[in-house]
Design brief:
The chain is mainly alpha-helical. It folds into two domains: about 1-275, Glycosyltransferase, CATH 1.50.10; about 280-320. Helices cover about 50% and strands about 0% of the residues. The protein has helices at about 1-10, 20-25, 75-85, 95-100, 125-130, 140-150, 160-175, 200-215, 220-240, 250-265, 275-320; strands at about 40-45, 45-50. A hairpin with a 2-residue loop joins β1 (about 40-45) and β2 (about 45-50). It starts with a helix and ends with a helix.
Length: about 325
Amino acid sequence: MPFRIVNSLKSVNCSFMLDPVLLDLVTSRCNSTDGGFSEPTFEYDGEEVSWCNFDMVFHGMADDHSAYSRSNVISTFLAVDILRNMNALDRINATKTVQFVISCKAGNGGFGPYPFPHGEPYAPYLTENPFTVDSYGAGVAYTYAAVGTLSDLNYTISLSSEERELTRKYVLSCQHARSGCFVSIPEYADVPWLNPEDHDIFFTYYAVMALQYIDAIDASRENLTQTNNWLLNQQLLRDTFTYGLFDYLSPEAAAFDAVMCLNASDSLYLLDQLTPRAVQQQTLLLTISTASAITTFVLVVAIPRVVKRIKTKILSEEMQPT
């Protein structure tokens, strides 16, 4: 929640209004040993759990948020982004945080939620990981968080063209082959159907923003055209951008993700096109407006004229000599 609030205030140049005590809250989540950030644990129903309000799908229990209790790339991104927007990056060891994020990079160009043991994924890590990850231990959401952190720390410019291209190809490998939206991991990209447990509009947002962070929008223009068509199709079907996990996203939240995606690819002009319902409403309003105009003309102009003519005729007949 602080991440969303800080970004909102930053967008209207009001981040100076924030209480600096927020910085203490954020930096208290930092692990000084590895440079990563985590969420605090608390007891819930007899268990120690941690919570992060980050749109995510787990391969286990949907409410299993204990994974955030250790240093992870999602909490790291949220924290670093808050510090950047509050001009307080000097309160952390940026070099160590960058190293933490880089250690989360998988061999296929994506990023995982945690650093890989000895730099390579292995089976126990995948099975014990409550996050949904691919066979390399990565996912599009963690890739978004990772490159977002590197961008906040001005490190993406240090990535080689080969590293950027490998990450770009990984993100695009998460695009659903038939629809054009993005799914959580590449393994779900070729399935002929879309399951709410496997994809959501926020995964599409994560993918497009990740491409923007590594300056790969132009190189991915063809893929993003298909994505834009999917976004607009959801709007056409529902007259909103609501397309969330079990439809829990509000129209405003989903619209935010959609508009950000369209804006990243310089495609906001596509929203000038009216949806079928909007066209129907426009036609209805035009019909009502026309009928109202006709009625007004009849009541204000036509009828008074007819009445006046009738009165004139009657008066003229009365004045004629008998």
